[in-house]
């Protein structure tokens, strides 16, 4: 991969975004890439987006901020890997336009980390689904807030059917094929 790319992982909570982002990061470093950064939604919300909530407006603001950082990184040739639920299609498309304006067509790779909500509830890594189902937290994506599925994702990985390493392999294949 020569060109700066943004690999944007979108999907329900517990679909596997963080898991795949961290594995991709290690794989790209192993390929010899040095300019790689992971932007994880959970981490971003403790810094750049601290204080934002989960209304549609706040979610959109959070995504646009992450998109802006990726735009800056793209300008400097850094590959960004984003792991964020990013449930709304319109703002995902807005971010694509922002990145491609700087990095050119194909510099934004939308990966739909697909997993049925039943399996996500079964995983419930952080216990958030249980809380949402008990009504202890509101506006939880997949339970009480919408997730707009990508209509034209560049890659779809189905984490309920394939192992993380298979998912990562499929993403790398596309990334390397398009950008070598
Ligand atoms: N193919 C796969 N890809 C990724 N994760 C998988 C896969 N198969 C099983 N898993 C498991 O699913 C869980 C996904 O948790 P992870 O924290 O990565 O989700 P997330 O999408 O980042 O959620 P959140 O939005 O809450 O941060 C992990 O326990 C992981 O081991
Ligand atoms: Mg995560």
From TrEMBL:
Pathway named in the protein's UniProt entry: Sulfur metabolism; hydrogen sulfide biosynthesis; sulfite from sulfate: step 2/3
Catalytic residues as annotated in Swiss-Prot or TrEMBL: 86
GO CC terms of this entry: cytoplasm
Keywords: ATP-binding, Kinase, Nucleotide-binding, Phosphoprotein, Transferase
GO biological process, one term: hydrogen sulfide biosynthetic process
Domain of life from the UniProt record: Bacteria
Membership in a protein family: Belongs to the APS kinase family.
Protein name (Swiss-Prot/TrEMBL): Adenylyl-sulfate kinase
Source organism of this protein record: Nitrospira defluvii
């Amino acid at each position: 991969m020569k060109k700066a790319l943004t690999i944007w992982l979108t999907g329900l909570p517990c679909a596997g975004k963080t898991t795949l982002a961290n594995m991709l990061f290690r794989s790209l470093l192993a390929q010899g890439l040095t300019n790689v950064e992971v932007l994880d939604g959970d981490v971003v919300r403790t810094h750049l987006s601290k204080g934002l909530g989960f209304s549609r407006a706040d979610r959109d603001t959070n995504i646009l901020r992450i998109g802006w950082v990726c735009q800056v990184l793209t300008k400097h040739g850094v590959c960004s890997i984003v792991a964020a639920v990013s449930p709304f299609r319109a703002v995902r498309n807005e971010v694509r336009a922002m990145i491609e304006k700087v990095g050119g067509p194909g510099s934004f790779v939308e990966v739909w980390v697909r997993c049925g909500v039943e399996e996500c509830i079964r995983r419930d890594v952080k216990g958030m689904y249980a809380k949402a189902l008990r009504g202890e937290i509101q506006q939880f994506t997949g339970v009480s807030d919408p997730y707009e599925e990508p209509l034209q994702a560049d890659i779809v990985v189905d984490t309920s059917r394939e192992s993380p390493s298979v998912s990562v392999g499929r993403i790398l294949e596309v990334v390397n094929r398009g950008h070598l």
